[in-house]
Amino acid sequence: MAEEGTAVRVVALRGGHVLDRRMTEMGLNVGCELTVRQRQGSGVVVTRGEARFALGNGMAHKVMVERLDVAGDFAGVGDA
Q1: Which pLDDT score, from 0 to 100, does residue 41 have?
Q2: Is residue 29 part of a domain?
Q3: Which end of the chain is more exposed for a tag (fewer CB within 10 A), N or C?
């Protein structure tokens, strides 16, 4: 799991057709950049621009991301 304050880019959604479509409709699509704002228990709160999204454990583990460094370059792989 990505730590609080980490900038990440979504590289894959692995939740099946229904969850992938739901995430995409929310604006969490492959290629978008997110910031991990809060981790509580097994859930996570991420932001994309001014929008905040609370993801439960199951949903969060199906979003594959790569960590971005300050310049926005690839720095590692994890899941948010």
Answers
A1: 81
A2: yes
A3: N
